[in-house]
Amino acid sequence: MQSLRFPVPIQNALTPSNPRFSRNQTPRRIRSHSRLSNSLSLHCATATDAVVHREESREQFNDRFAPCVHFPPEDEPLPAGLRRELMPRHVAVIMDGNVRWERRRGLPAGSGHEAGAQSLRGLVELCCKWGIRVLTVFAFSFDNWSRPKVEVEFLLDLFEKMISSEIDDFASEGIRISIIGDSSKLPNPLPKLISDAEERTKDNSRLQLIVAVSYSGKYDVVQACKSISQKVKDGVVEVDDINESLVEQELETNCTEFPYPDLLIRTSGELRVSNFLLWQLAYTELFFASALWPDFGKSEFVEALVSFQQRQRRYGGRDP
C-alpha cells in the first residue's frame, strides 16, 4: 500500500462542527434529493479538541450520538496503533478502481461495481464500530454522465437495487442516509426511492452516510452562489453580509453537523480530488491508497487512520 505521508508529531485537532446544524434538520430536497447511500457502490483525519470544542460540548455531542445496539463503538477493540480519541469525525472517500478491478480479472462488465458495493458495506460497518460520525462517499460524479450509456444505466440500476436491498438494515442499524448532488438528470423511480429512504432514516444518529450522486464540487459552489444571489435580489441578504459562513450554509453539506471531512481517502493510486467537495476539503488530510476500491478493506482503512492520527493539523497557524 502506498500513501502520501508526512513525518509530523502525533498531535491532532478535528475540524469544527457546523453551529447552524440541527440534528433534526433534514437536507434540502429540491437541489439534492437524499439518495440512499447504497448507490455508494456505484463507484464506486484528536488529541486535543481544544480551539474547536470544549470538553463539555464534547460530552453533549456524545450524548446526542448514543451508540446503536448493533454497532456500539466498544463492540470491537480498535486495531493496534489506533487511539479512539484521535479518530476522525468525518471521513470522505473517493471510491475509484472498480472497472480496472474487473478488467484485470477478466470478469464481466459491472462485476467491479458490484464488488465495490461490498467494500462500501464493510466500510460502513467499521465506521459504526469505531465511532466515526460521518462517512461521505463519491458514488457518481456529474462528469460521469459522459461515460458510455450502458455503464451509466447499469450504475443507476445498481443504485436503485441497493436502495431497496439495504434500507432495512441501514434503518435498523441507526444509519442516516443523505444524498447530495444535482438530481435533475436522475430517472424515475430514483427520486422517490431516495426521498423515501432519507425520510425513513432522518432521525437516526449512529452514523450519517452521505452519498454524492451526480455531484461535483464546482456545481456545489455555483449553486450556493446562485442561492445567495437570489437572496440578495429578494432583499433577504445584503451584499456586505456575504462571507465564508454564509457560503458554507448554502453548500449541500449543510445536511450534517460536521460538513468538513477530517480525512479524505482515495483508492486506486490516483493522486487527485477529481472535483469532489472542493470547498469542504480546504484543511482535510489526504491519504492515497494504491488498492483498487473492491480490494479496500479493514487493513487498508486502518493504515489510512493510523496515518491520519500521526499528523499535526495547524489550520494555517503555528505550534505554541
TrEMBL record:
<dbReference type="GO" id="GO:0009570">
    <property type="term" value="C:chloroplast stroma"/>
</dbReference>
<keyword id="KW-0808">Transferase</keyword>
<dbReference type="GO" id="GO:0009668">
    <property type="term" value="P:plastid membrane organization"/>
</dbReference>
<dbReference type="GO" id="GO:0009409">
    <property type="term" value="P:response to cold"/>
</dbReference>
<feature type="compositionally biased region" description="Polar residues">
    <location>
        <begin position="13"/>
        <end position="25"/>
    </location>
</feature>
<protein>
    <recommendedName>
        <fullName>Alkyl transferase</fullName>
        <ecNumber>2.5.1.-</ecNumber>
    </recommendedName>
</protein>
<dbReference type="Pfam" id="PF01255">
    <property type="entry name" value="Prenyltransf"/>
</dbReference>
<dbReference type="GO" id="GO:0045547">
    <property type="term" value="F:ditrans,polycis-polyprenyl diphosphate synthase [(2E,6E)-farnesyl diphosphate specific] activity"/>
</dbReference>
<feature type="region of interest" description="Disordered">
    <location>
        <begin position="13"/>
        <end position="35"/>
    </location>
</feature>
<dbReference type="InterPro" id="IPR001441">
    <property type="entry name" value="UPP_synth-like"/>
</dbReference>
<comment type="function">
    <text>Catalyzes cis-prenyl chain elongation to produce the polyprenyl backbone of dolichol, a glycosyl carrier-lipid required for the biosynthesis of several classes of glycoprotein.</text>
</comment>
<dbReference type="GO" id="GO:0016094">
    <property type="term" value="P:polyprenol biosynthetic process"/>
</dbReference>
<dbReference type="InterPro" id="IPR036424">
    <property type="entry name" value="UPP_synth-like_sf"/>
</dbReference>
<comment type="similarity">
    <text>Belongs to the UPP synthase family.</text>
</comment>
<dbReference type="InterPro" id="IPR018520">
    <property type="entry name" value="UPP_synth-like_CS"/>
</dbReference>
<comment type="pathway">
    <text>Protein modification; protein glycosylation.</text>
</comment>
